[in-house]
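ugh ok fine here u go
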Amino acid sequence: MTAAAPPRDRMWRELLPPGRRYVALPSRRHPVVVAEDRAPVLSYVRESLLAVPPSLPAWLYPAARAALAVPAVRRCVPRLTVPGPGGDHGPAGTADNDIGRLLAAGPLVLLDHSHDPNARLILLLFPPGSAVPALAVKVPTGPGGVPGIVREAAQLQAMATLPLDEARSAVPAVVGLLRHDGLPALATTALPGVPMLVAYHRPGHHARPAPVRADFAAAAAWLAALQSVTAGESAPLDLAPGVAEVLAPRLDDERAREELRALRRRLRRYCAPLTAVHGDFWPGNILVRDGRVSGVVDWEHARTAGSPLSDPARFVVAYSEYLDRRTRPGHRVPGHPGLVSGQPGAALAYALDGTGWYPRLVRGFLAAALRRFGLPPACGRDAVLAELAAVAAEATDPEFTRAQTQAFVRLSSTEEASWSP
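structure:
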């Protein structure tokens, strides 16, 4: 560890208990996953976390699986050894650091998969001898991440007061707020299953109807269970709170701002029961086991009473977002002949307005959610536009913000009557 290392790099290194060996993927300098070099932990990484994002070639996936599974090949995987006391940094457990003592108890996996300014590191902690983690700890990378930690703790505690019935097993329980370097960190129970996004990014997954249908069916079943037991009083449909105020200044011209106002007017024609809302229901936050949703994580944006269309629409927006990411701009996307890669919002436009098995699946998924609340199928497109507006308003990365805003403008300018479920 040198003085020239960036703060983010220094932070995750200082979290790792000293005197132990770790595997770093995809590289030692900029890892997304840092796992204790123990067979049960590496097996968990291989089966439950390993995927290759669109920015990297697909052949890396089978290569990484082999490297983690075969001891002779595993020597090629980048490794870290954190020095013990007397090395170039002190032990993880120090004053005002509850996490250091917790991490010393057993093996762990550290995830650093977000590079937003307010990102959090995630630690998965394994009981000694266990092949699955029991605790998940979110650690803010700086003061900017603290409000999200506090909000998530509050929302999970609020969700714990609701009669969730069979949906409850997929909601983490708050274990406590810890301290690390003077900042709060959130400890919750770890949930079983494989993130849906992990399977999504494995070669060929979202190009084939069967696995994609299974993903949509699992999401629909869990949302139906959650919403059926939390439905309360009715209210007009609308954008999520604060979205219009944030997004309107980001739109380039008055016509686009009028499209936003027109969307709100169309939504407000209808009323639906308010239900519990996760608020960021996308494949990266959904864990699946045996074809069912076994866990849903990241409850920072949850509401105990919100629009029942928010979560289904967010799932459609996010699932469609990456369909074309492995395809060069201007080329047709494998498995989706009606989709050409390259333009912001192209995949979502294809999902809503295109032809083929995927657009039919999306429109059927939305129509089923609408039927539960007595809403007409034609509301589906506006529900997705409202959630796309929320994504554009929430975004903090300038490039991602621009792409989501452009996608909203593109899709909102399409005539309402042209969409048919």
